[in-house]
Amino acid sequence: MVAVVMAFSRLAETESQCIARALRRKDSEFIGRLVSQFHYRLLRYLVYLTSRREQAEDLVQETWMRVLERAGQYNGRSRFEPWLFSIARNLAIDHLRRGQKIGLNTHDAEALLEVPAPDGHSPFAAAAKSEDAVRVAGALAALEPIYREALLLRFQEELSLDEIAQVVGAPVSTISSRIHRGLAIMRSRLEGGGGAA
User: Fold this and answer.
1) Cβ density class 64-99: b for 16+ within 10 Å, e for less
2) What mean pLDDT comes out for the span 115-122?
3) Total count of domains within the chain
4) Does any domain span residue 195?
5) Range of the structural domain that residue 91 is part of
6) Which of 66, 12, 5 minimizes the C-alpha distance to 35?
7) What share of the chain is helix, strand, coil (3-state, %, to 5)?
8) Percent of the chain surpassing pLDDT 70
9) Residues 113, 62: contact at Cβ < 8 Å?
10) How many CA atoms lie within 13 A of 76 on its CB side?
11) FRET partner for 45 with CA separation of 20 to 30 A, picked from 93, 102, 122, 130?
12) In whole angstroms, what is the distance from residue 125 CA to residue 160 CA?
């Protein structure tokens, strides 16, 4: 088991280092594949943060521009996703501070279920066809942004607690608390208790 973990770790390091080299070289073909690979995930994350699809699409483009501008800053010692999501998050927060609010209503949450995956299929999209998925999306949308973001990064984007801490600039203990609190609030709402945020 340890050998498998070490081999996986080396593979992840190699992939991260490959991305770092390609970014430094401004390898347009490789960068095009990165954009294709992460476009859907960035869009989905930014739609949840901003509650506006058009705004999120603009922020996705800005994120990639910033990635290219700061290509030399990514050293490949850690996974690419936390670095990418940190850039997207900072751009979204800057944009929201200029006059927008963070928050989703139930209608927005249902619209988020319609963000298409690149291949037209995703586990989230498949689940979205059920009534339970609409209830879960509504409960998620009703969470305070700090809880919603922690849950999205952990369960939808599958980032580790350390990676989420890197993205949001908070200690791991804070991230863990946000995830537990967010899950408790959602559980309470889904069971009909309403739950306080």
Assistant:
1) bebbeeebeebebeebbbbbbbbbbbebbeebbeee
2) 53
3) 1
4) no
5) 2-190
6) 66
7) 75, 0, 25
8) 74
9) no
10) 17
11) 130
12) 23
**Which tokens is 21 given?**
């080299």
The reported pTM is 0.73
* Rounded CA separation 45/33 (Å): 19
Tokens at 101, concatenated: 């609010």
- The answer, yes or no, to whether residue 106 has pLDDT greater than 50, is no
Q: How far apart are the first and last CA of the chain?
A: 41
pLDDT tens digit sequence for 158-188: 999 999 999 999 999 999 999 999 999 999 9
> What tokens appear for 26 in the block?
């401004």
With respect to residue 197, please indicate whether it lies within any of the assigned structural domains.
no
Query: In this structure, what token pair is assigned to residue 72?
Result: 């030399």
What's the rounded Cα separation, in Å, for the pair 12 and 103?
35
Residue 45 lies in a domain: yes
pLDDT mean across residues, the chain: 81
Q: For the chain, what is the total number of helices (H) and then of strands (E)?
A: 10, 0
pLDDT digits (tens, 9 = 90+) for 69-99: 999 999 998 999 999 999 999 999 998 888 6
The answer to the question of residue 196 being in a domain is no
